[in-house]
Structure to design on (254 residues):
């Protein structure tokens, strides 16, 4: 039976872990080495997701109400929101559900790239219109890495060569000048440099995802003196205990 010592947890702790990120998979691996009961949750957007260890459920809950019902039925005591920094809707639902139920909310969010030495030289944007406008003023051969869900904002770019990288195939047609690459990383600076060079990229578009998995493009852009337009992060839910790594999350659960 679990005890409250440094590496043991109270037996009634039951975690729902909202994932879809590398940190969530790392946390699942760490939780599996404890006596905490946990279930990871994935949205189901990716056809062949990288699965975390342990029990996994897949698919939406049906809004905040559905999440509340699920957590009550499963007797969840702690909700860990380890979704991507830009998965804003899920995080809002998590905050609402915890507010209603009184379940503890921990937000595991990797630090952004703002502390990088080159971040001050980037063109920061507050929304996608801002991203498009700034990128238009910089170059005509953009490399869009901000994700499938952001592409609608660039649909007017029918007059230029655009390189897009996404994880899942698109189910809509893109303009003739667009080249779409399906890849999920992680990437090396060497391969990113070669890709940008091959497509004569003159502006890199990204969002402040943070973490090491997709940071090589920033190193390559710095090396090639390619300007970077970055979509800033949305704010976190106020009610959450915010941690930035797995160790911090385990401490918060103790
Ligand atoms: P979102 O816009 O915040 O969420 C939309 C809806 O998807 C939510 O309302 C929820 O449906 C469902 N959902 C999202 N995450 C879920 C999860 N972990 N478990 C169960 N349902 C989930 O999310 P998104 O930006 O589309 O991202 C979807 C997933 O991909 C997230 O889990 C996120 O961690 C991961 N991801 C996102 C990005 C990104 O750039 N946005 C990048 C990498 C990975 P219901 O309302 O029906 O509950």
């Amino acid at each position: 039976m679990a005890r409250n010592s440094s590496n043991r947890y109270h037996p009634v702790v039951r975690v729902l872990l909202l994932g879809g990120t590398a940190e969530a998979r790392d946390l699942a691996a760490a939780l599996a080495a404890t006596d905490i009961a946990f279930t990871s949750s994935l949205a189901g957007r990716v056809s062949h997701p990288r699965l975390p260890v342990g029990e996994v459920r897949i698919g939406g809950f049906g809004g905040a109400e559905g999440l509340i019902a699920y957590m009550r039925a499963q007797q969840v005591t702690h909700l860990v929101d380890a979704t991507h920094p830009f998965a804003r809707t899920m995080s809002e639902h998590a905050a609402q559900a915890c507010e209603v139920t009184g379940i503890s909310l921990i937000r595991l969010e990797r630090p952004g790239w703002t502390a990088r030495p080159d971040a001050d030289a980037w063109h920061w944007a507050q929304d996608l219109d801002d991203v498009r406008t700034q990128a238009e003023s910089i170059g005509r051969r953009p490399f869009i890495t901000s994700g499938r869900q952001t592409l609608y904002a660039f649909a007017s770019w029918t007059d230029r060569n655009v390189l897009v990288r996404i994880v899942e195939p698109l189910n809509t047609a893109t303009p003739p000048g667009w080249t779409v690459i399906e890849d999920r990383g992680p990437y090396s600076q060497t391969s990113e440099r070669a890709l940008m060079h091959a497509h004569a990229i003159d502006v890199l578009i990204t969002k402040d995802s943070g973490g090491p998995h997709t940071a090589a493009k920033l190193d390559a852009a710095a090396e090639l003196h390619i300007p970077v337009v970055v979509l800033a992060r949305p704010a976190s839910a106020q009610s959450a205990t915010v941690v930035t790594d797995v160790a911090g999350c385990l401490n918060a659960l103790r």
The pocket of NAP is lined by residues 18-21, 41-43, 45, 60-63, 66-67, 83-84, 86-90, 93, 147 (CB under 6 Å).
